[in-house]
Amino acid sequence: MYDVAIIGCGVIGAACAYELSRYDQSVVILEAKNDVAAGTTKANSAILHAGYDPAPDTWMGKLNVRGVRLARDICQRLDVGYEQCGSLVVAFSEADLPTLETLYQRGLANGVPGIELVDAARAHELEPELSDAVVGALWAPSAAIVNPWEFALAMAEVAVRNGVELRLRAQVTAVTRTSAGAFELTVPQGIVSARTVINAAGVAAGQVHDFIATPSFHITPTRGQYHLLDHSSAGIVRHVVFQCPNERGKGVLVAPTVHGNVIVGPDAEPLPDDQADNTACTAAGQDFVAQQALLSIPKLNLRDNIRNFAGIRANVDSGDFIIGEAPDVPGWFDLAGMKSPGLSCAPAVAEVASDWLANRGIRGVRKQNYQDGRTHIRFVEHTPDDRAALVAQDPAYGRIICRCETVTEAEIIHALHEEIPATTIDGVKRRAGTGMGRCQGGFCGPRILELICRELDMSPLEVLQDEDGSYVLDSLAKGGE
Q: Is 94 exposed, middle or buried (CB count within 10 Å of its CB: 0-12, 13-18, 19+)?
């Protein structure tokens, strides 16, 4: 019997686990996939939004600014890729200027620091490659870019270090309640019992809610497609560049990434419920993203594209986050509809969930021996002297496996043995940055497969690219074993 069961280990579930791991209580995370941060968290714009978009009387408006502030501190404490680069929302005509004014007033109401309306000259000074059609912009210096999956992974790692139990491949397929009031969650491995449940199941949160509570909201899976450009495009934009938002979202953006690339996207395509995992890219979607991005940055060279991908976000019919205890099911707490700015709000959302547990008398006292903090060695970021010291300490730092991103064998070995170890090629990618460059794993992929087999004592035929079923090899040739 756990005190708390968290369903889902995307950035929201991970943030909840990180927050709750500070207290003396038993917590389990039930994640459907074979790794953490494997849903929306791994495929998004990687933006910590300043907080001027949401209306002040919404959960989004109340939590965004605090979430970004907490995220900055967490990224520093847990050594997560982060850069406060600021953002611009650009207006292409006089007709767009009232929208900027509305966003500005919302930003003031939400407490966004340093926000200001700027004219065309100032906008081009901040971002020289902006289109000449830009007539003004909203400047928000507190916006930031982040490594989203490392953000979630780091919080989950610290939670596990401090006693939270993580169960992967544990999709919840049914929920019942005992006569004593405990929840019984059915997963492939059996039944998990908990006094309270936090539903952070992402796109599936509505379905999970309906297992036990009266249906009260509906989530529409919405696919967003992206272009990822090579490092050679770095510098074409220095800040996150948005277009004026509309009813379908914040529009197509162009932004730098913490890895030194440029990201372009997304579009917004609603999908049927039975296609909630459909992350296929389409020619129409990719063309739309490209055309819209060129309106903002005409000199953007989309021939530098090295990867196209899509993510699924949870658009909820309420228009706002669903945060709160189900009225007809005491002890069940929904954190649903976490579309943008869900990544930005995650740490503040976790505080709300923690306070709910405290009010119910379930959250324990603060742990005296809590172990916070995390360091992550990125060989490419070190000086020549520091690199030499690392190689002297461990010769595996002297063997470059991923040439595009300068990732060493030692970094990959660490990814395979950390608190939440990688077991797949893309799991290594999310932890060490392999396969992120121009060749997209064409050179380093086979070497990573070898290291996974060696370090985890696996057969090459067992190694997955990413999700279950994505086997890299079908058979071995030339008498291989």
A: exposed
Residue found under tokens 């997304």: 266
Read off the pLDDT of residues 278-290 as tens digits, 9 standing for 90 and up. 999 999 999 999 9
Catalytic residue set: 49
* pTM > 0.90: yes or no: yes
Task: Band the pLDDT of 251: cuts 50, 70, 90.
Answer: confident
CA–CA separation, 356 vs 324, rounded Å? Answer: 8
CA-based angle 324:373:74, to the nearest 5? 45
Q: Residue 23 above 70 pLDDT?
A: yes
pLDDT of residue 245: 79
Q: Enter the DSSP assignment of 128.
A: T
CB atoms within 10 A of CB 56: 15
The whole-angstrom separation of Cα 19 and Cα 351 is 7
User: For residue 196, what pLDDT band results from cuts at 50, 70 and 90?
Assistant: very high
Longest dimension (CA), the chain: 70
Hey, how many other C-beta atoms are within 10 angstroms of the C-beta on 366? 9
Give the domains, in start order, of the chain with CATH numbers.
Answer: 1-83+143-218+317-376 (3.50.50.60), 84-142+220-312 (3.30.9.10), 379-462 (1.10.10.1100)
**Which among 131, 133, 44 has a CA at the least distance from the CA of 95?**
133
Q: Which residues on adjacent β-strands are paired with residue 324? A: 334
- Are the CB atoms for 271 and 278 separated by under 8 Å? yes
Give the list of residues 6+ apart from residue 151 with CB closer than 8 angstroms, or none.
Answer: 11, 14, 71, 74, 75, 80, 343, 346
| Angstrom distance (rounded) from CA 70 to CA 56 | 19
CA dist 389 and 391 (Å) reads 5
